[in-house]
Amino acid sequence: MENFSTQWFLAFYVSLGALLISYGVFLLFKTERMKEYLLSVAENETPPPAWKKILKYLLLFTLPGLFLSFIPFSWIELLFSLWALLIIFVAGQLILVWQHTSQAILENKNTLKRKIRFVAANMISIGIVLFLLTYVLLERSEILS
After folding, report:
1. What does the DSSP 8-state code read for residue 72?
2. Which residues contact 132 (CB under 8 A, 6 or more apart)?
3. Are 17 and 127 in contact (CB under 8 A)?
4. Which residues of 78-113 are buried (b: 16+ CB within 10 A; e: fewer)?
5. Residue 125's pLDDT is what?
6. For the chain, how big is the Rg over CA atoms in Å?
7. Contact assessment for residue 85 and residue 62, using Cβ atoms and an 8 Å cutoff
8. What's the rounded Cα separation, in Å, for the pair 13 and 139?
9. Nearest 10 degrees: Cα torsion 67, 68, 71, 76
10. Residue 2, pLDDT score
11. What pLDDT sits at residue 83?
């Protein structure tokens, strides 16, 4: 079971890290396009269905990770799983109060490009951290031995 736990977190770290870095780079280069997208979805009364799907799949991968962080017990994987659950909770709150979220997007259209770039930089840095976590996991596991 320990080997499965290690493989689970390896797959999770690598895939999520690659997604965050690639989408962060995309946002840096396509900031104007994302701004137009956000302004268009903010005019809708319901949040974009894709956002709900992303959160649902992130939750589906995080919950087993939370359980597997105890086999063998690892503070790093436990903290990562709790951090991911916090991100899901915060993003879910933004979707639940969509009327306020969309209003805030529309009211801050002048600073939206700067905020998108800030999010992109955070995504890239978190992706790099996930690759560092992959390295730490490989170093302490028996997969390389």
Report:
1. T
2. none
3. yes
4. eebbeebbeebeeeeeeeeebeebbeebeeeeeebe
5. 97
6. 17
7. yes
8. 14
9. -100
10. 82
11. 94
Q: Work out the number of other CB atoms within 10 angstroms of the CB of residue 7.
A: 14
Q: Which two tokens stand for residue 144?
A: 């390389």
pLDDT of residue 143: 61
In this prediction, residues 2-21 reach a mean pLDDT of: 92
More confident position, 73 or 93: 93
11 closest CA partner among 93, 135, 134: 134
3-state DSSP assignment of residue 73 = strand
Q: Say if residues 95 and 47 touch (Cβ distance below 8 Å).
A: yes
- Residue 139's contacts (CB-CB under 8 Å, 6 or more residues apart) are none
> Given the structure tokens 């840095």, which residue do they identify?
125
- pLDDT reported for residue 117: 97
Q: Assign 70 to helix, strand or coil.
A: strand
For 79, the 3-state DSSP assignment is helix
- Both structure tokens of 29: 């280069």
The one-letter amino acid code at 25 reads V
